[in-house]
Amino acid sequence: MSTFRDPVGPKSAKVYLRRRLVVLAVLLAVIAVIVLAILKPGSGAGAPEANEVKLPTDLAAQTAQSPEPKEGDVPACQSGQLKVTPGTDKTDYAEGELPQLFLSVVNAGTEPCSADLGTAGMEFTVSSGDDQVWRSVDCQSEPEALAVILDPDQAVQTEPIAWDRTRSSAETCDITRDPVAAGGASYHLRAAAAGVQGSGTAQFLLY
Q: Which of 43, 55, 123, 140 is 20–30 Å from 28 (CA)?
C-alpha cells in the first residue's frame, strides 16, 4: 500500500498527509510559473516582436514627413531666375543727409534656389548722367558671402548701406574723398547681386 496514502510515523496519519499535500501544492505552483515564463502570454501574432520598436503616434508621423531642404540640397540660382531691383529709402535728401541704398531680389523661377546676397556678391553704383561717381566695391573691406535660399516668387530686401556722398575709386582708399555735387543734383543708383545685373535705376536728388 502506498506510503503517501498511508503514511507511517510517530504522528497521526492526517498530519503526514497534510504535509504531503502542501509539498505537492508548492511543486505544482513552481511548475506553473516555469511554464508561464516559457510560453510568455501575449506573445502571439498581435504582440510586437522582441526587436520591434513602437513609436508614439505623433513621433511616427513626424518621422514620415520630408525634412526641410538644406543649403547644399538647393541648386544655385541661374541668372534667368533672379530679378534684381535697386532702391533707396527716399527720393531726395537734405544737405548732410546720407542716402540709404539697398536692393531687392525675387526668385522668378518655379523651384527654390540659393543666391549669394552678402556684400561679397553685390555691387552698388551711383552715377550722375554719364559720370560714374561711386561704387560700393571700391575700397570695400572684409566682404562677406551670405547664401540665401529663395522660394519661387519670394522677394528679399538687403540691409541698407549708407553712401557718404563722396566720389570713389580704387586709388582713393587712403585719402580724403571729394564730395559730389549737391544743390538739387540728380543721381541714379544701379545694383547687381549674385552675378545678376539689376533692372532699371533708382533716381534721387541731393541738396
A: 43
